[in-house]
Amino acid sequence: MTVEIILVFSILLITIALFAFEVFPVDKIALFIIVALAVCGLVNPEEAISGFSNTATITVLALMIVAIGMEDTGVISTLARFLKKLHVLPFIILLPVFMFITAGISAFISTTAVVIVFIKIISELSSRFNLPESKLLLPISFAGILGGSCTLMGTSTNLIVNSVALNLGAERFSFFEFSFYGIIFLVVSIVIITIASRWLPKERKETIEDEYKIENYVTSVFVTENSSLIGKKIEDTFLFNNEDISLLKISRNSQTNNAPGRYITLKKGDKLLLLCNLDNLMKLNEFEGLDIHERLSVSETVYKLEDMEEEDNPENLGFAELLILPGSQLIGKSLKEIRRQSIQNATPIAIRKRKNIRNTKERLIRKDIRQIALKPGDRLLVEIPKQDIPRLELLENVAILQEHDIPAEKNNFKKSIAFGILLLIIGLAASGLLTILISSLLGVSLLLLSQCIKLTDVYHRVNWQVIFLLAGMIPLGIAMHNTGADQWLSNQLIDLLSGRSNFIIIGLIFLITMVMSGVISNNATAIIMTPIAISIAAGMELPFKPFILAVLFGANFSFFTPVGYQTNTLIYGMGIYKFRHFLIIGGIVSITLWILGTFMLSSLL
Q: Which residue, of 48, 430, 509, 565, has the fewest CB within 10 Å?
């Protein structure tokens, strides 16, 4: 093993760790990768930035813009709107029908865009017809992923695998090259998920106060000079052994005690971080000698309340729950920063953080809570005058979950044009007259010419994190090939698999890819595993196609965790499901598809 190979593997392992623990946003990690590879001399300058000009990256960008056009003109909503007529069906039939429709649309339009629209529609159906929202959202997300695995343009992962394989000498996949396998996977998964839906959580009838735990606040208070607490030990005050009030930490003279003991004596100017309910919060506000500095809440949720003006009538105010989607201008901003800009006359009240292994209560408390920022999948609770609620529809890349009114009907003429452009893109790409890259760029141009989309809107709504992720990971794949790291790793695997059956070989590639995609991005996994799979196939003198498909499907089928695929992350962030629902139900689906896929793909050898 050479020094260059060791450097590549070191960068790769650090990258996986950063992805898994979400230390930085994916676009920032991607930039670090580019710089590290270039500084270490593992790629030349042109190769370091080649990801930005890669055909797969540009194709993904173009298809994102097409999906924005389909959403803005109402094409996706129209395709899904007739789902409302299906609410009369029994659930055992309704669920598979919903999944088939979602998968069918996702095969040709961005899976994430489709699932976002379905979230809105299912939320409305749940409130109007008492449909079990908790029984539908996770299956819809899974169906979107499965549908996207049926065509070459269905997911960015498919395009990436095809692009990397093509650069390494493999044949180009046609539009419907692997649709047969994808449909089989879809049908089997729908049967499994329909049966397993009984283990999904039951519908909970909670108020906004219950959902956001508004009765629990983390409140910062100052001990004033007139406070009766001065000179008393904590054990001698109401702060000790009180079920309704918990002292979390004390700050004094720029020093913070995160575990204050009972014998600490309180002094003037001490800043106390208290956890208490709403009633006690009001009492603290009236308590002589305590000055409430700010009010915040933590229970995987962070709150900060804004003082209401006296003339505001509570009866005229309403609440709306907003799901933060990729590309939103609110991403990366704290509540304090959000209040500095207008969000359609709405006052942010609470942030419910998308769950991940770093969002523990202890970490939130130890961190400056004011700095906790919004990420995709988080939910924002806002207070807004009832007459202004429709204005929330103007927010870009924000899904309104609490107010379930569907936006007004779009312009039918533009909708027809956009749908025709989509059919043109699919027809040109499927027939082979044009590549997906050229056909999608043609579609974008036609959408702009017909004013179905505007570039000023596109700039704000494209998920640039995905683009930077691809641009950063592609040079990593190049570095693995330049240094021979992929060949070295494949040689080790060939030695390990020597004499094994084709079933075992394909199964191992499929399994490794699937496990990796459950921890890091499926696109990143595809870029890493495709060169390795092709090297193994070449070393064993076997056809490339089964190995490439094993990576393609394995990277997409990360159902057993909520972090491998963007739609699963959004669904998980809504707070309806726990990690175990993905682990158990998604795990059953993943294992079944792994075994089935191994049988089908190994038969091609």
A: 430
